[in-house]
Write a structure and sequence with these properties.
This protein has 409 residues and is of the alpha/beta class. Helix 1 packs across helix 12 and helix 9 packs across helix 10.
């Protein structure tokens, strides 16, 4: 029998909350985090807004990359919340699993727009440490996701397995799955699972170019949706084996009851029109959790607000949940904070766990009209609060990468 994997600590640093209490307040009041982008010129793009985190404490990190400034607070919060490192534990049995889409690449690509960057013989500040001067070729070595894990390991004296998952919008789901398997296989007693993606002109330009960016405010799951807005942020979970948690006398928020990963191998960016990969991921999550669709009390949708993604995901959940879908509230947190790419799944996972522990359904905003052909109920600010014990969290990204998780209180 597989040992249970328990969430013992959570941390968040995102546009609608720099800690869990602030996040909780924003969710209950349905307060969004969209602001005018001032970090770079957006005048030629489809929209000038994004879900932005402001007011970084730059003393928090020796590195200058926005990813690092975002990830460090959420990790610190989660570790303090769990009390993991306050216990007498073996830190070689603690691992780190990072999920990200662009890591430090955003800063690198943004720097390419600078006219003088093409002068390859000159030195430039390191993207991970502004005090270090690197030549053009050395800069390439300072952008991968694993360096984020290394920085965390050095700060907290963690000497277990380090890993980084880079699978577009499902990256944090893959990082979480790897963490669960690392614990179940006996390679670690606990894993710090952190994800991050920063605001960058690289991603802003990309979603503008493929016309996936909304020209207004995002309306996920709505008939008249026209795209997404970019977001940014970080979230962190501390996962532990149940036996390790009990041994050290820690608390638990929820169990990772089951997960499913998939890839539909259909297109470089678009999901399969019928949601084939999403169906596989959700089916496997339910199977592993030993649950039926009727047991799920709420679904946090991937819900980007783009035509293709929302259609495919709604078709997929209709295939899985059938008539019971009418009784299961769904919502998209991206309506409040934008699409945080590789960090989206874990940020929305923290939202799920927070909602379970405070007894409310995370709302969607801007929803007005149902998409034709599917019967579903979208949770809004006016939806009655409800005790939640079993919830599903979906992340379905570019290339058909999919991750579905079931949290049990």
């Amino acid at each position: 029998m597989k040992e249970k994997v328990i969430i013992s600590g959570i941390g968040i640093y995102c546009p609608i909350g720099k800690n869990v209490d602030a996040l909780n307040d924003a969710l209950i009041s349905a307060h969004h985090g969209f602001e005018e982008v001032t970090e770079f010129d957006t005048s030629t793009y489809r929209n000038t807004y994004a879900g932005v985190v402001r007011g970084f404490d730059e003393s928090r990190s020796k590195t200058g990359v926005r990813s690092n400034l975002l990830i460090r607070p959420s990790v610190e919060q989660a570790l303090n919340d769990s009390g993991l490192l306050e216990s007498d534990i073996d830190r070689s049995r603690v691992s780190i699993s990072i999920g990200t889409s662009i890591a430090g690449y955003g800063g690198f690509v943004d720097s390419l727009f600078k006219e003088d960057y093409a002068k390859r013989n000159e030195e430039y500040p390191s993207l991970l440490n502004s005090k270090i001067q690197l030549n053009h070729d050395e800069t390439i070595l300072n952008i991968p996701g694993p360096l984020l894990a290394t920085e965390i390991a050095k700060e907290y004296g963690i000497s277990g397995v380090l890993s980084s998952s880079v699978t577009a919008c499902s990256a944090s789901g893959n990082a979480m799955a790897l963490a669960v398997d690392t614990i179940r296989s006996g390679l670690a007693d606990a894993v710090i699972v952190a994800s991050v993606d920063p605001l960058s002109e690289l991603t802003y330009m990309g979603f503008h170019t493929i016309r996936a960016m909304s020209q207004k405010m995002p309306k996920p799951l709505d008939k008249n949706r026209d795209g997404l807005l970019i977001g940014e942020g970080s979230a962190c979970f501390i996962l532990e084996s149940e036996s390790h948690l009990i041994k050290r006398g820690g608390k638990g928020y929820a169990e990772i009851a089951g997960y499913g990963l998939s890839n539909d191998a259909y297109h470089a960016t678009q999901p399969h029109p019928n949601g084939e990969g999403a169906v596989v991921a959700m089916k496997e999550a339910l199977r592993e959790a030993g649950l039926s669709p009727e047991d799920i009390q709420y679904i946090n949708m991937h819900g980007t607000g783009t035509k293709h993604n929302d259609n495919a995901e709604l078709k997929a959940i209709q295939r899985i949940f059938k008539d019971s879908l009418r009784n299961i509230p769904i919502s998209s947190s991206k309506s409040l904070l934008g699409h945080a790419l590789g960090a989206a799944g874990s940020i929305e996972g923290v939202i799920c766990v927070t909602a379970m522990n405070h007894g409310f359904i995370p709302p969607s905003i801007n929803f007005e009209e149902h998409i034709d052909g599917v019967e579903y109920q979208v949770a809004t600010k006016d939806t009655d609060h409800k005790e939640l014990n079993v919830v599903m969290n979906n992340s379905f990204g570019f290339g058909g990468n999919g991750a579905s998780f079931i949290f049990r209180k």
